[in-house]
Amino acid sequence: MNSVIDLIFLRYGLEELDNYSIYLEWRLSSDHAPLTISIPIEEQYIHNGKCSVAKGSVEEKVFIKDVIKDFTTIDTSNLIDIESLKIAINSFALAIDRAWEKNSKIVTISRHLKSWWNMNCSRDLEKYRSTRSLVDWKQFKKTVKSTKHIFFDQKIQEISNKARGHWELVNWVKERNLSAVKAIKYNNCSCLEIHDLWNALHFTFNLAQDRYVNVDILDEIPNKSTEEFRKAIAKCNNSSASGPDKLSWSHLKCIINNEACLGNIISIANVCFELGLWLSHFKSSTTIIISKPNKESYDSPKSFQPIILLNTLGKLIEKVISKCLQFSLISNGFIHLCQLGGLKQKSTSDTSVALTHFICSGWTKNNTTSTLAFDIA
Length: 377
Hints:
By secondary structure, this protein is mainly α. Helices cover about 45% and strands about 10% of the residues. α1 packs antiparallel against α2 (about 80-105), α2 (about 80-105) packs antiparallel against α8 and α6 packs across α10. The protein is extended. The termini are far apart.
């Protein structure tokens, strides 16, 4: 007589081992007995809202005004040591937090969310819902139509004024749908826990940690001027995502238009140079992990790209430092002529021209040019 073995595969150590059942009486004429298992599933609340300040709204203007008001009261005239510097930057962070809590509103994120919707639409919709009159319904539709026209006219104007222009309308610069992702593997082990996933991403993309850095070079950086800060922020994209400090470039541009605020920022930056200290506030960041397109498998950390969102004030000071260092390196002849990446007034076109020049020079000598390309991270 043949026998059939029915099996249930369970993970050792889980409570499900005590919740399985074998129903022999349900078998009837079949060779298989039904096997059941009870898996406890707890109800979880998925938070789909976030605090936000609408761009161009009255709340945004009040938010910037409150930050400027609090930041001008911070005394930066006696920044002589690390402790006083930390107190000043903490006061700046608290000023932003207070203004944000006062003016931000919770926005529910859903697939029905409309970027053109504003308070006028909400007002007229609520009015129609309370009266249910045809006149209010027509007024609501009129408001929606007018709001859409204003919003999309502004979008068209913004796109036409940007350097990339119409390229922002093509598919490959828009948001990408998430790909089907398997469990990420690191060192041949699947990352099933948040801690394991964090370690996999951390040790893959953060290889420069604990690398020695000579901070004595900061001694050669002179004190910064207001003009340098204004030039550094002038070309920053207002639509860039903000970091943990919730300040966008457009907010910071309004803040540094105030002479007192700009003076405080310059004082903080100059003391950082003198003390050779980069404050933890500037290092605070939010990491967004996005998938790289057209990958065969997404079970490796290298199939993803981390995007680091730093605090905006720290990024501004970094831009000023970078420009100063680049000027010193180029003026002293430390940059090779073939170095084109990461330099001002250099672009992909210069690389193409240089490569074409090498090829054409080889042709004049009846030589064949070979190119070896590799990526250095």
